[in-house]
Amino acid sequence: MADDTSSSTPSNDHAALLERRLKRERAAREQAEALLVEKMESLYETLKQSQNAQKDLELALWASQESFWSWKAQCDRMEIRSFSLHSESVSTWSGTLIQLLERVHEDDIEGLQFHWSMALHGKRDRIEFSFRLKLDEDFQWVRLRGRVLERGNAGEALHIVGTTKDITQQRKAEQSFHLMASAFASSREPMLVLSPDLVITECNDAFIQLIGAMVKDQWVGLDFNHIFITEKVDKAQLASDKQVRFESKIKTQSGEIRVVDISVALFETYQQTSYLIATMRDISDRKRNEARLRQLALHDELTGLSNRNFLRESITGLVESKKPFVLVFIDLDGFKAINDNAGHERGDIELQRVGAQLTAMFGPIGEVGRWGGDEFIAVLPSQTCEKIAEKSQQLIHHIEEDVVSVKSSELRLSASIGIADFPAHSDSIEGLIQCADAAMYRAKELGKGQAFIYEPGLYESMTQQVSMVNDLRRTVENHLLDFYIQGKYDLNGELKGGEVLCRWISGLHGVVSPAVFIPIAEEQKLDSAIGLQALEAACDYISIMESQQGESIPLSVNISANQMLDPNFPQQALKICMNNSVSPEYIELELTESVFIRDEKAALRALNTLKENGFRLSLDDFGSGFSSLSYLRSFQFEVVKVDKSLIQGIHLDSKANALFNGLIAMLKSLQIEVVAEGVELESYLPFMQQADIQLMQGFYFDKPMPYDQFLARHTSEPNR
Description:
Layout: H1 2-6, H2 10-63, E1 66-72, E2 77-83, E3 90-95, H3 97-101, H4 109-120, E4 126-135, E5 138-151, E6 157-166, H5 168-186, E7 191-194, E8 200-203, H6 205-211, H7 235-241, E9 243-251, E10 257-268, E11 274-282, H8 284-298, H9 308-320, E12 325-333, H10 335-342, H11 344-362, E13 367-372, E14 375-381, H12 385-400, E15 403-406, E16 409-412, E17 414-422, H13 429-445, E18 451-453, H14 463-477, E19 482-489, E20 495-506, E21 510-512, H15 514-523, H16 527-549, E22 555-558, H17 561-564, H18 569-579, E23 587-591, H19 594-612, E24 616-622, H20 628-634, E25 639-642, H21 654-669, E26 673-677, H22 685-691, E27 695-697, H23 707-716
Parallel strand pairs: 17-18, 20-22, 22-23, 23-24, 24-25, 25-26, 26-27
Antiparallel strand pairs: 1-2, 1-6, 2-3, 4-5, 5-6, 7-8, 7-11, 9-10, 10-11, 12-14, 12-17, 13-14, 15-16, 19-20, 20-21
Region (Disordered): 1-20
Keywords: Kinase, Transferase
Domain EAL: 465-718
């Protein structure tokens, strides 16, 4: 053993010592590293909790649209921090109170200084004030809230924190609400505030005046629908559309029935509070006027029978419903002789007598009306031609009973009657009228004073009609129609415009009246091509007039229902103007109410497109139909042409004059330019002057003429 011990060397002892020391250092290092990791994890958790709390604060501030601010007296600086929800960015503004005040609206500086001073010097611990602050280029309303966190020994504030919020939209909403409340109270239109379940919560003085109540209180708390006698608010529609509009009747406290136009709309305040605003407009007078005008428009003024337009609509309704009926066409024989020899007054009496006899014979079983002049039509559903032929003969007998004595002569009326059946003889309106008309002419050929039922063989005698159709088609296809101009004149007789009118001079049929070939063109679908050619001619005339005279006049062109309902027409019309370098404002498109009867929605779309493109739009033959007024509500026409039927006789008949003046006054109140057509006599002029008509058209001034003649007249001769 002694030998083993003694054999140990110093180098071995040193190595063992180093190894032991190394193990101690390694253990100490590992212990230190473990402690460091533990402390780092603890620190991380603390930091994480702090960050989460900050994020919660930032989220809360973002959700309330608030910004955090802090002010310390030590540095006299305010720092405003705005937080973003979707990013880690923080918008910060830092500056002194002086720098902040530089941005404050001058009217709000004194108030802000007062509130700040009260908090700063110990009078108040809380601050709340709204003021205007300039951000970017505009002033925004800001609400500032704050609280003193620390004060010095003398009570002065050392640290103040708080929040700010942009309340611009809130302020605007409040202002709008106050304005609305003021408008509500002072409005001349009756207005009410309703709860969502239609209970009246407030009403203005105009409503109280309309209803004839003594006080408002008796109406507050009532169901709004209880006011109305007829139509009421449709709650389902209101919930769906958020607004409704309708007409109804109310009964005032004096027992008077008034017609009102009602509009109810849903509103929400900035606080998301829902309520309803109802407005009412008394339209009783307008309804009465419309009823009177409708009555006049529906009926012939002389006889009291239905007029041409109403008859046509009655026929249209039966044709569209495919209900069988008999059409009777009555033409008086000998009427011209009575009119010429006994005078127009006696002629009118005879027309009234025939109208009464027609009503007595056919009125109980159908519709009877005056077609025009001495022509009448009866539309008789669910009848046979044979039975109607018997009644027609009885009618002829009654008509012939009256004798008109003129000096030593005796004049007697008779009638030739044509009868046609729908759908046996024709399944179209124009076709059926033509059949009845052909049968009537056959009755005349047989000696007049007869009734004749249409026979298919009559078409064989109408070969000229077929020839005319073919000839018209060739004429249109080869652009051989002529286009004349008739001027439009003001009260001083000065030329202000013109109308382009189509004329047909046929090599086979001679001069064919537009009253003949235009219906044929419409039936054969040639009217659209004629309309485009008329528009081309108008542009040519305008260009020529500008080149020769330095200026031109606007020209109007008649547009058929078929053409107006063609979706390509607005673009076609604009292209024609562009190709001829003519502004659309020089083109006035005239249309009749027939386009609305066909398809009102499509017509309104076309009219709006044309108006947007710059074309002037005119409603032609106003007063000859019965629904023109409703079309004036649907679309704002620039021009209305009053039908010549309303002008004829105004110098002889006070009622006709009163009707004419009332109609003109109504149109002017709608700011619509009026053109009176059919001014044929100088005696009409004082009445045009009285009504302050803007433009006139008629044979008194000129007849339609070729363009070269028209241009020569107005360049070489002074205006009338």
